[in-house]
Amino acid sequence: MADETDNHKKLKHLWQLQGAKEGLQLVKADLMVDGSFDDAIMGCDGVFHVASPVLGPKSNPKAEILDPAIKGTLNVLKSCKRSSSVKRVILTSSSAAVRVREDFDPNVPLDESSWSSVELCQRLQVEAEKAAWEFAKENAMDLVTVLPSFVIGPSLPQDLCSTRESEKFSWHGRMGYVHIDDAALCHILVYEEPSAQGRYLCSSVVLDNNDLVSLLGERYPSLPIPKRCGCVVFSCD
């Protein structure tokens, strides 16, 4: 009974979405189990794979983040292969799979053909996306990947936001941002557009710390935004 109650609380926000009672169907599955998604994917025209382990302070990044990301992605693609109805698969990757480079040259623009150095970001999604592309090519699968920058905006519900797992998060320098609604729309567009292929960067404005602090300070004057040593620090309380 306790598990049933916890599960109801976890899924409550999904059933509150507009049209959920008429068109939403939830299926239990496990990314780490091959074949777990077979029944859910059977009969579908398209599949959106947006789940991946969240980056964080892990004791064993390879075992707890990298391996599950690769295995989970391949398990979903294997289920897609077993379904004759699936026409296209959309995979959410990350702009981090493009912009972390050893040979960074500010005069050479990065685009969807760029790849991050695997050695520099073993904890990121480079290998998961590369594994997906290898599988898609070997099995003649129509795969399109979306690489969002730092996604901002509300989550459903708020306590699902990964950044809220820690009290504070910080960064230095410049960063690209995209609203979660735009990221979702990008996924839909590349699924519906027949000519879409390959990798698509999904980003909007690029801001440095000073620009970001100024923007947030003007829009939310009552919100305390500390700034120190060129590093922006936000509380997630």
UniProtKB/TrEMBL annotation:
One of its GO terms (molecular function) is oxidoreductase activity, acting on the CH-OH group of donors, NAD or NADP as acceptor. It holds the Pfam family Epimerase. It comes from the Eukaryota. CDD domains: FR_SDR_e. Residues 8-196 form the NAD-dependent epimerase/dehydratase domain. This is NAD-dependent epimerase/dehydratase domain-containing protein. SUPFAM superfamilies: NAD(P)-binding Rossmann-fold domains (SSF51735). InterPro entries: Epimerase_deHydtase (IPR001509), NAD(P)-bd_dom_sf (IPR036291), NAD(P)_dehydrat-like (IPR050425). Transmembrane segments: none annotated.
